[in-house]
Design a protein that fits this description.
This is Oxidoreductase domain protein. It comes from Streptomyces violaceusniger (strain Tu 4113). This protein has a 6-stranded parallel β-sheet with strand order 3-2-1-4-5-6, with helices on both faces. The protein contains 7 helices and 6 strands, in the order βαβαβαβαβαβαα. The chain starts with 7 loop residues before the first strand and ends in a 25-residue tail after the last helix. The chain is an alpha/beta fold. Helix 4 packs parallel to helix 5 (105-118). Helix content is 32%, strand content 12%. It has 2 domains: 8-127, NAD(P)-binding Rossmann-like Domain (Rossmann fold), CATH 3.40.50.720; 150-208, no CATH class.
Length: 222
């Protein structure tokens, strides 16, 4: 079996709640080296670097200016995705960004235009559709295994973000909101109303509690 010898150097932008999952997951790929973590809160970046033995840490600008970083993993909050993705592309980095790609269609077009100008690769979560379950279903449809589909039903169940995130406020703001990308699920009545009005419902009181560790303004962490 051929051995992979090329190694790609990764910089993670954002050291928030989801950082650990990415740091652990990236370790499972021998072709990838996480060499830097950046956050608007330098102390948080330093703690993340120490916990996962990442050699360099600092602020976002330091990551973008680091010529050793080839790929930026962007796990900042949704409202900052377009701004940070474009900055990374313009700095000559390939980018993989958490969902959503941007807050609006217009911002998404700006992101795609920036990627085209830069000549760099751009990827975005969710990549679940590339997994075995969805690909098997697609194969069954494409090959006619199940005949011609005439309808489909899907159910999505999810707990409120304040039940699992230490500071859920970003999930009730621009580019996220309780509707996320799946329309009426957890809040059937209010989400249906918001879909008609074009607005997401206000967060419940539990989501408006103060953050455990308030982050500085600017490129906050996810």
């Amino acid at each position: 079996m051929a051995q992979h010898t090329a190694r790609h150097r990764i910089g993670i932008l954002g050291a928030g709640n989801i950082f650990g999952r990415y740091a652990e997951g990236l370790r499972t790929f021998p072709e990838l080296d996480v060499i830097r973590v950046a956050d608007v809160d330098p102390a948080r970046a330093e703690r993340a670097a120490a916990e996962y033995a990442i050699p360099a840490w600092g602020g976002p600008d330091e990551l973008l200016e680091d010529d050793a970083v080839e790929i930026v993993i962007n796990i900042t909050p949704p409202a900052f995705h377009a701004k940070t993705v474009i900055a990374a592309l313009e700095a000559g980095k390939h980018v993989y960004v958490e969902k959503p790609l941007a807050a609006t269609v217009e911002e998404a077009r700006e992101v795609l235009d920036a990627a085209e100008r830069s000549g760099k690769l751009l990827g975005s979560a969710p990549d679940t559709f590339l997994g075995s379950a969805v690909q098997t279903a697609r194969h069954a449809i494409d090959t006619g295994l199940i005949g011609e589909p005439v309808g489909a039903t899907a159910f999505v169940r999810s707990s409120r973000s304040e039940t699992w995130h230490p500071d859920p406020r970003a999930f009730y703001g621009r580019a996220a909101g309780p509707c996320w990308t799946w329309a009426p699920t957890t809040w059937p009545r209010s989400s249906t109303a918001s879909a008609r009005s074009g607005r997401c419902p206000p967060p419940p009181a539990s989501a408006r509690r103060p953050a455990r560790s308030p982050a500085p303004s600017g490129w906050s962490t996810r």
